[in-house]
Design goal:
The chain is an alpha/beta fold. It has seven helices and five strands; from the N terminus they run βααβααβααβαβ. It has one domain: 5'-nuclease (Rossmann fold).
């Protein structure tokens, strides 16, 4: 199964969120993993911001350890660059305005990848609105309990 991951899945693991076990299950369920370059960019930014905001509570090596963990995840995923094809999808697909800009870029990337695939592309996220949009676009998605959604 080919699976598209947005940043919320990887961040749930790296930040030891309560849904970490579910995120690990989603990650391991993909025989092939794909995403936008946004996955890497968003995740490193959130890790750095988390460290800066919690520096007094975190070990001085926390950011280094988490960055190494992130590098290991990135070795397992094929990242699609954001280019004019993604831009064109964003311009043409007005339904992508149902979510925030970075989420719309994730969805446009998934749409672009799906066009060139012969097998089903699953879309995994912990964002309720993004999952709703993915389902309306006929992606198979993970399910989350309302209390876990962001």
């Amino acid at each position: 199964m080919v699976c598209y991951y947005d940043s919320s899945v990887v961040l749930a693991i790296l930040l030891d969120e309560p849904r970490k076990v579910e995120a690990k299950e989603l990650w391991s369920s993909g025989k092939a993993r794909v995403s936008s370059l946004l996955l890497k960019l968003e995740t490193i930014t959130v890790l750095r911001r988390t460290y800066e905001q919690n520096r007094s509570k975190l070990d001085s090596t926390w950011l280094t350890k988490k960055t190494i963990e992130l590098s290991e995840f990135m070795k397992e995923v094929n990242l699609r660059i954001i280019d004019s094809e993604i831009d064109q999808i964003l311009e043409l697909r007005k339904d992508l305005a149902r979510c925030r800009t970075l989420d719309a870029i994730h969805m446009a990337t998934a749409i672009d990848l799906k066009k060139s695939m012969t097998e089903e592309l699953c879309f995994f996220s912990f964002d309720r609105d993004l999952l709703g949009l993915a389902q309306s676009l006929r992606f198979r998605t993970n399910t989350i309990r309302p209390e876990e959604a962001v």
